[in-house]
Design a protein that fits this description.
single chain, about 575 residues, alpha/beta, five-stranded parallel beta sheet, 21 helices, about 10% strand, binds 6-O-phosphono-beta-D-fructofuranose
Length: about 575
Amino acid sequence: MPATKPQRKPLPTSKSTRTVAPTATPAQPTIPAWHAAPDTTKAWKRLMTLAKTQRSMDLRKAFAGDRGRAKALSADALGIHLDYSKNLIDRSTLDALLALAEECGVRKHTKAMFAGEAINLTENRAVLHIALRAPKGSSIKVDGANVVPGVHEVLTRMARFTDAVRSGAWRGHTGKRIKTIINIGIGGSDLGPVMAYEALKDFSERSIECRYVSNIDGEDFYEKTRDANPEETLFIVSSKTFTTMETMTNAQTARAWSLARLKDESAVAKHFVAVSTNATEVAKFGIDTANMFGFWDWVGGRYSMDSAIGLSTMLAIGSEGFAELLGGFHDMDEHFRTAPPRKNLPYLLALIGVWNRDFLGCETVAVLPYCQYLHRLSAYLQQLDMESNGKRVQLDGTPCRWQTSPVIWGEPGTNGQHAFYQMIHQGTSPVPCDFIAFAQPLHGVGSKSTGEHHDILIANMLAQGEALAFGKTAAEVRAEGTAAWLVPHRTFPGNRPTNTLLCEKLSPRMLGRIIALYEHKVFVQGSIWRVNSFDQWGVELGKVLAKRIIPELTGPRGKSAAKHDGSTESLIARYRGLRGR
Ligand code: F6P
């Protein structure tokens, strides 16, 4: 792997992005002048003009009139082919979008991130998930200290622990081998690990099963433990803060569940490990900090699947597999950092997204992997995208005058085809789609009579892209002899935008590349939208209110001091009534 050489030059003007010791309330930052608001740029105005005509672009004509279109509007890197030619853009749109990224300072912002500047302005923190996959020997500094050796120290401890569990050297309290690993975590401490475990099942050690408990709903814990043997079960309590209500409640329940069988407090040391940035809380919970794997406040929860939060991933695919995964992330980091924007996959995916969202008014994006192993990918990307860029104010606190994160959703193909594709083809709202597939299957399922399943799968994906782009005209429907009154029902409008990511083969390395591609896509979009992609204040209010309501559901009748609106009061009363309280 090539060594990382992050840009070290400090930003020219900004006080705001300098790394300083964190304080409870950071001083109000000054936004660097290069971080322009998108709608003040020349490119934005040009794109507004282009959108007037291109929103009614006819993709049939566009392809017929430009034989080089598919080639011109596609890019290749690291075994990933991105075809974005079936979007309502032409080469001039692409030029204007690239100019927009430049005018919004994406390049400078990228340099600031790679240099460890505190670009998470509202929390005064560096944003350095790229350091989690930096090769040994490289240097990335936060507050003057190189963080890479610390990253590799944790990786080495994780690898030692992984080897011990997989080889059977690490045993449970009663001497039995660990067969079930249950990760307790939520949000970024769950979605990445679940997604990766499912995605990399074919590379995993099948004698150990990983399960994931996230929901505070006791159904989750109950179902994941009902057939597990406490003597053979290891819990990983994963929480960046180690204060998240769901995770701490589930962890306490897990402790009680284990000890009910093992009947000895000292068993906790053999059946519980923690992944966190908060050693004090880990110790308070009763987990020996020798069994804790740390990470750092410069890793956002939703950017943490390649930190120690990925311990269950490493246990599943082994330390070498995990190193491959990290290698894939790093490959994409280097591509993002060095490739010209016109050939840069994260830039291209981001710019198409900005075009669809801000200029064509698309409100959602469907991520549609034609790969069953990636069945949790869209759930993972939902947090990555929507928690990062679901913001309504700019870095300086003024309202965004443009749209930010779309709704991200999706399911694997071909299942989705038999559920919601109807709306994508013929509904009233256009839904841009990302199709993702691998040319090489990981299995040989199929027979002479059925044909290879994989070919049928890929044919379906290509057919969907074709149908969405080119549709079926009323004349074509009529020519099939369809009754006149049925023609509108059977007509497909076409001109529905899609990207196709055709990748070589799913592997830990390829998964790392794909995830880093989306991480950097989100970064580029957040830079253009001038929002802080790295905080999540929007999740706080609900957490506080829930804490207030809990005693009102459980405490003595009429003792509640809290006042709510009429609706909430009456729902609380109804719930209490139904529970006989
Ligand atoms: O509530 C949102 C959030 O803070 C996410 O950003 C985070 O991934 C999740 O909760 C879990 O947080 P933690 O890892 O600290 O338990």
